[in-house]
Amino acid sequence: MIAFTSTLLLLSVLAATSIEPTLASSSISIDKRLDCRAKLDSSLHRELLLNGRPQIGLWKALLKQQKIQHEAKEVEEALFSTDQHLQLQLPLQSTTTTSRPQSKAHSKFGPHCFPQKISHFDDAVNGTFCQRYWIDASSYKEGGPVFLLDGGETSGADRVPFLEQGILQILSNATGGIGIVLEHRYYGDSVPVESFSTDDLRFLNNAEAMEDSANLIRNFKPPSSVLSVEDGALHPNNTAWIYYGGSYAGARAAHMRVQYPHLVWGAIASSAVTHAQINFPEYYDPIQRYAPEECITTLQQAILIIDSLLNHPEPIPTLLKGVFGLSELAGNDDFADVIQAPLGYWQAKNWDPKVGSTHFYEFCDALTAGGAGSKLGLIRIPASIVNYGAYIKQASLQGHPASDIEECFGSQDDTKFQETDLEQTWRLWLFQVCTQWGYFMPAPAEGLPRIVSNQLTLDYTSKVCKQAFPPGKHFTVPIWPDVAEVNNRGDYGIEYERLAFIDGDRDPWRPMTPQSDWAPKRNSSVSKPVHLIFDGVHHYDEADLDGGLATLAYGPARDDMLNTVDADSFLNPLRQKNGLADHSKEPFRIRDVHQLEKNFVGEWVAQFADEKQKREKEKVEE
Question: Could you list the residue ranges that cross the membrane (predicted)?
């Protein structure tokens, strides 16, 4: 998840459906992207804010456009309704339904409501809010465990599919357990405040979120419509609670096991960023190490040339920006930020083609396609920069008015970042970044290989904290994030009995996890499992195939995807087994990690049963 310091997979988002130029220098065909008329839904929200560096300006521009379109639609519907009243002779069945459909997705799982205090630690603050959760007890057998999946920095609704196809279904089905998705405070509809101002966000922190989970575990009673059990049957004294989280939520899974061992019997921390760090250029290291060599070499060379040209006197920098369709963008640093956005596609890779993205490989194909160079005045630029610019224009700016470029991508206007109404959900994870987690992503130090411009400094990548969160009456965002709050909970060395760490070897977040190259080396055991998924990226163990494969891209992107799926899976569409995915169709490395998780969780559950029996026997003997 990081999910995280969010990456602005800006790109694809602004392509307008009415204009579809092609990349003349590339043999690939880039699919028509979501355009300004597209709904700013949870998927697009994650792309823009949680895959690398956040593209806040673009997110806000899309929200503004969406609101304009919504208002126009309401006017149109009102006019239509009036017209229908004036034409009573029309038969009822010929009228058009204009009401917006209500989402009924996953209604069999919830959501349900668990009351939480607005603050568990500030006695001066009264009141509660509804923390949403979803539950599946279809596999439950008496004595089975409860698996609690931490929703992390997104709407809990985004995690609900894992109850039916994914880690919760896999583990619940294997152990006769219950699966629960718990939405994080402030995210989705679990909102305890009336605005996202600096003051109102002060209860959005790691400690409050941990106590939310602990409070639910202590006091949970399943809805009677879902499961009927005796009072206390699911209390942690009587039932093993296993905590699961990925990325940011993965760190909390580890923290929960250590801080609340009497409540959390075991935990699986997937891609868990247990090390917080202010300056995080290492995000780009796995990309440089594992992405196609020709692509990375070409990109490194292009970035060096771009930085050199940006240091020339005008009009060279403006002419360079024009190659990318960004001549109206004032700041060189803002320009550098826009063109680094395709790197966020690396984090979006996934072994399941229906979940993962091939956009990174499309970017590489475009960059390395060859062709003719061009000139900026008297300065010749290579084909790689021409191709780079064409990709950005097509994938990011297609149909986007030049007059809006500064509004979408500029960062000079502080007021742009100071709206605090509840629609400004981009403020949530950013607030956590600015207060506790860090993960600003500047270019590495001079002299080191880099695939982003040196215009991306620490000051630039962190300045939005000061812009977005001015001091409030009750809370002031620190000058730099208090990463010690996170690192004092265990950092790279965090460990505990029945605490597992699962990572992908190519995850750009692995440098912040206990399986970082800088972390102490670990030996895996049933009690303290560790596993590194070959060719894995971000919490690769969380998902599961759902009964079909998506249409694959062409070229290297298609080849990469095919290499991650067993041949028989690709040739024979997946079939459901009793409504559940056929796990035998998973790629070998994913099947292996899921089997590993089932094995050690099974042992943990058996240990709990033994401990419980021992306690009951001792109680009788007393």
Answer: none
Token pair of 432, please? 């956590």
Nearest-angstrom CA–CA distance, 436 and 96: 51
pLDDT in tens, 578-607: 334 667 788 899 999 999 999 999 999 999
Report, as an integer, the average pLDDT of 350-378: 90
Element (H or E) spanning 543, and its range? none
Question: In sequence order, what DSSP letters do the residues of 119-184 get, joined into one string?
Answer: -SS-TT---EEEEEEEEE-TT--TT--EEEEE--SS-GGGGTHHHHSBHHHHHHHHHT-EEEEEPP
Q: Which two three-digit tokens encode residue 199? A: 């003051």
- Global pTM? 0.83
**Residue 542, helix vs strand vs coil:** coil
Straight-line distance from the first to the last Cα atom of the chain, in angstroms, rounded to the nearest whole number? 49
How far is residue 111's CA from residue 160's CA, in Å, rounded to a whole number? 9
Contacts of 74 (CB under 8 A, 6+ apart): none
Q: What DSSP letter does each residue of 333-389 carry, written as one string? A: HHHHHHHTGGGHHHHT--SSTTT---HHHHHHHHHT-----EEETTEEE-HHHHHHH
Q: Does residue 259 sit in helix, strand or coil?
A: helix
Please classify residue 526 by burial: count the beta carbons closer than 10 Å to its beta carbon, then call 0-12 exposed, 13-18 middle and 19+ buried: middle
- Rounded to 5 degrees, what angle do the CA atoms 431, 433, 436 make? 100
Convert 589-612 to b/e letters by CB count within 10 Å (16 or more is b): bbeebbebbbebbeebbebbeeee
DSSP states of 438-476 as a string? EEE--PPPTTS--SS-TT--HHHHHHHHHHH----SS--
Contact 427, 202 (CB under 8 A): no
Supply the residues annotated as catalytic.
Answer: 247, 507
